[in-house]
Amino acid sequence: MERTLSIIKPDAVKKGVIGPILARFEEEGLRICAMKKIQMSKRVAEGFYAVHAERPFFGELTEFMSSGPCVVIALEGEGAILANRRIMGATNPAEAADGTLRKLYADSIGENAVHGSDAPETAATEIAYFFAGTELL
Ligand code: ATP
Ligand code: MG
Predict the structure, then answer these.
(1) Ligand 1 pocket, 57 CB below 6 A?
(2) Does residue 112 line the site of ligand 1, with CB under 6 A?
(3) Helices marked H in the chain — which ranges?
(4) What are the tens digits of pLDDT across the range 113-125?
(5) Quick count: other Cβ atoms within 10 Å of Cβ 115?
(6) What is the crossing angle of helices 120-130 and 80-88, to 10°?
(7) What pLDDT score was predicted for residue 118?
(8) What global pTM score does this model have?
(9) Residues within 5 Å of ion ligand 2 by Cβ?
(10) Distance 90 CA to ligand 1 centre (A)
């Protein structure tokens, strides 16, 4: 069993597609261990995406991620990290495969509906960024 962090980003929350995204995770066999709706401050978003601090899009990314509420979710399943990334599709929705969450719900590479951890170490760090161990059920 593996865990991964998903975020339903502010653009997808504004569109009212929390429900279909959660349904998709469950349909694909990913179990929700923990979930909450939050609005990140700019500082919290900067901490979360610290690995991208030197990228030219860092300011835009952290402004966007703190621009409205999002839903943070710890998902669990066999191969959950790759499964979630397959369900999300490519970072740029223009390149995302049909049926993926980004193809269905994202408008641009900057506002791309969902986040998913990319490796076991980052998944553990990202889950711990938002959830205490006792909240993972
Ligand atoms: P995420 O980490 O959000 O799941 P990802 O792993 O597919 O996405 P990363 O390379 O980690 O992609 O980039 C993190 C986020 O930064 C992207 O989801 C996107 O919102 C934003 N981003 C990446 N590249 C660009 C870009 N060229 N212009 C604007 N925003 C970008
Ligand atoms: Mg990433």
Answers:
(1) yes
(2) yes
(3) 10-15, 18-27, 42-48, 58-65, 80-88, 101-105, 120-130
(4) 999 999 999 999 9
(5) 21
(6) 80
(7) 98
(8) 0.97
(9) 118
(10) 10
